[in-house]
Amino acid sequence: MLAIFLKTLPFFGLIATGYFAGRTRFFTDEATAYLTKFVFYFALSAMLFRFAANLSLGDVLNWTFIWAYLCASTLVYVLTTVFSRLRGISWEECAVEAQCAVIGNVGFLGVPMLTLLLGPQAIGPVMMVLAVDLLVFGSVIVIVITGTRDGRIAPGVLLSVGRGLVRNPMIVSIGAGFAWSALEWPIPVPMNEFLDLLGAAATPCALFAIGASLASKSAERLSVALWLSGAKLILHPAAVAFMALVVFPIEPYAASVMIACAALPVAGNVYILARHYGVAPHRVSTTILLTTAASVVTVSAIIAWLG
Q1: pLDDT per residue as tens digits for the range 127-148
Q2: Any alpha helices (H) in 24-182, and if so which ranges?
């Protein structure tokens, strides 16, 4: 575990550096927002397109893998929702808390860190996990919140969800990359070098942006956040491990990548949605703070256990 911890330390060191820059106001909230946009729309998109364009969708697309991850995440999602309802909170808050329990920071943290720790062949399984998170659970939270407020799920809601998905640069870049791969076009050398150069900025900038964004988040509702942190860092990877290793016949390497993805801290886009809809943003921000801090140890431990 010590060897894995030392390998993950530079990643979390970059997060800590960003946190320090944000906390001291050397890096303002506006600067963090623009850096996040650069990563989201340019650097990470270039990295994902280049990865996908050099993969074969037939080799990566594994429905058993997808079902295992989807079943495990749905189980945790439902359990979290049940416990939330038992506390007497609204369905909107339940949806946000359930999102905290299953949506890890796969895009900004998982893609660069796991491909380094587990090898470049991890990118295929990582992108499958990212696709499920974005397409399935990213849609569910919007449908639940808007459906609860309107009293019904109107066609306009589904249309809005669809527009949001096709405008998401991570989905677009992965889809475009696989389309390029399917056409069996070689990537021209200048284009490949451009994508490599731009994509190389994704890892340090994304990790720095994570830290800087954490500096502006407040810690409130600690008791609930502790439960949600446990659900994300312990319950979610445990459920995924059970589905991948016991219920479904997943190849061991792909299963280990899936479990490592499930062990990642809560993604920042959950906070963005919570703030956008005005549903428990402080609770989410506290959970992101706790899971990111604790994952320095928990992610290393789980990857070490996976061998």
Answers
A1: 999 989 988 898 888 888 877 7
A2: 29-38, 44-53, 57-60, 63-86, 91-102, 111-117, 123-132, 138-150, 155-166, 169-182
